[in-house]
Write a structure and sequence with these properties.
The complex is a heterodimer of chains A (117) and B (114). Chain A is mainly beta. Chain A has no helices and 12 strands. Chain A is 0% helix and 53% strand. In chain A, the strands form 3 sheets. In chain A, strands 2, 5, 6, 10, 11 and 12 form a 6-stranded mixed β-sheet that branches. In chain A, strands 3-9-8-7 form a 4-stranded antiparallel β-sheet, with no helix packed on it. Chain B is built from no helices and 11 strands. Classes of the chains: A mainly beta (117), B mainly beta (114).
């Protein structure tokens, strides 16, 4: 069975600090996809990134970066020089790709990130 | 692209009543998902459609829950004989094509069962 664990329930940092959100996953499949979503106070989930299991290259997008390590089943998310607008709940998610018509995305319990001015 | 639309935004009902929610996905998105989210938790998968076909339904979903997508466009989620434990945010999402594409979420319907 697949599972996503986000051990950090809440994180609070001062603006401009770097912060890393941890994500550990479990799956028996060799082919799968990992995601990060952001849920701001307005409530609507916003897609941030998708990574497939064959691509272990780290990715950087502006102040955001993602570190995918298959050996430790982790897909961590780092925000550099955090800003107050980054305050939100962040969800890591996993979907298996055994059959393209039978996929669904399983979410972790989320990490609430608060950026203090 | 007007986004995924869900109605109503809020629903308060008494235990035992039936409720129905509607989701209008992004036009031409053939996949539509229903999730449920309770406070402090991540979204929990309920069911999904590819066009009008319901391809998977969570085992956690009791027989009181039913979803339809009759013409492959909008979808409805009905809960019969509501219970207090059904209180949650019900989220709808759509994606453009087959495969593990990113999901576009609606703002959700907040259900409170008294």
């Amino acid at each position: 069975a697949q599972k996503v664990t986000q051990a950090q329930t809440e994180i609070s940092v001062v603006e401009k600090e770097d912060v890393t959100l941890d994500c550990v996953y479990e799956t028996r499949d060799t082919t799968y996809y990992l995601f990060w979503y952001k849920q701001p106070p307005s409530g609507e989930l916003v897609f941030l990134i998708r990574r497939n299991s064959f691509d272990e290259q780290n990715e950087i997008s502006g102040r955001y970066s993602w570190n995918f390590q298959k050996s430790t089943s982790s897909f961590n998310f780092t925000i550099t020089a955090s800003q107050v607008v980054d305050s939100a709940v962040y969800f890591c998610a996993l979907s298996e790709a055994q059959d393209s018509s039978a996929s669904k995305i399983i979410f972790g319990s989320g990490t609430r990130l608060s950026i203090r001015p | 692209d007007t986004g995924v639309s869900q109605n109503p935004r809020h629903k308060i009902t008494k235990r035992g009543q039936n409720v129905t929610f509607r989701c209008d996905p992004i036009s031409e998105h053939n996949r539509l998902y229903w999730y449920r989210q309770t406070l402090g938790q991540g979204p929990e998968f309920l069911t999904y459609f590819q066009n009008e076909a319901q391809l998977e339904k969570s085992r956690l979903l009791s027989d009181r829950f039913s979803a339809e997508r009759p013409k492959g466009s909008f979808s409805t989620l009905e809960i019969q004989r509501t219970e207090q434990g059904d209180s949650a945010m019900y989220l709808c999402a759509s994606s453009p094509r087959v495969g593990n594409e990113k999901l576009f979420f609606g703002s959700g319907t907040q259900l409170s069962v008294l």
